[in-house]
């Protein structure tokens, strides 16, 4: 996914990617990433958990405005099925 | 032979989902296209005025579109343009290398279109790109070159045509 992200950014469009495999993101080096220690198949969290999905998407969007260092990987540290999203 | 291969794959999909260290080890051992330089484009205007597009590698496509190729062990580097106002029932996921049972029930788990629509309604973003571009991850071998030289730049150009001011990418 990072390779696609890099191609889009190279076209002049700012990008942010959600990552659930930090090792890969560190190697491929996209511009901005939001890393979550979540299982495969769950980048936005659990099914029908609107508050969780919304928080993660908002975090990713916020990175577009706040990140100034290329290659930044943000880690909000939400614990799978433990963190309370309101 | 074919069936035993499918069973082995299904077992690995479950293992990788529940044992993250297994995936981390795989990522450390496997070779990736690594880079030093990092492409960078700053956000040109506030998010509240920006058209945001979604791109996913979770294998999402319209039911009416050709599914991704599951028989090629190196994956499928092609993409599907999905109208972002597509109905939930029009979407399907073709991807056998991850457990998409949660995303089958609620597509927002891999493609947060409903959440993006809500943020748009609240004027937190300026608009939604007219198309979502769906890829299948798990691309290897000769298809990596196709992805890097052909299909990924093609989607980048299409996003530009769509008027996207920013893009959020979601994996499987």
Task: Report a brief summary of the structure.
The complex is a heterodimer of chains A (86) and B (172). By secondary structure, chain A is of the alpha/beta class.
Describe what this molecule looks like in 3D:
The complex is a heterodimer of chains A (86) and B (172). With 86 residues, chain A is of the alpha/beta class. Chain A has one domain (2-74). Chain A has helices at 2-10, 22-28, 50-66; strands spanning 15-19, 32-35, 72-74. Chain A has a 3-stranded parallel sheet with strand order 1-2-3, with helices on both faces. In chain A, helix 3 links the parallel strand 2 (32-35) and strand 3 (72-74). The longest helix of chain A has 17 residues, at 50-66. The model of chain A has no long low-confidence stretch (mean pLDDT 97). Chain B contains 5 helices and 7 strands, in the order H-H-E-E-E-E-H-H-E-E-H-E. In chain B, strands 1, 3, 5, 6 and 7 form a 5-stranded mixed sheet that branches. A two-stranded antiparallel ribbon of chain B has the order 2-4. In chain B, helix 1 (2-18) packs across helix 2. The longest helix of chain B is centred in the last third of the chain and has 20 residues, at 142-161. Chain B is globular, with a radius of gyration of 17 Å. The interface between A and B is large, with 51 and 68 residues.
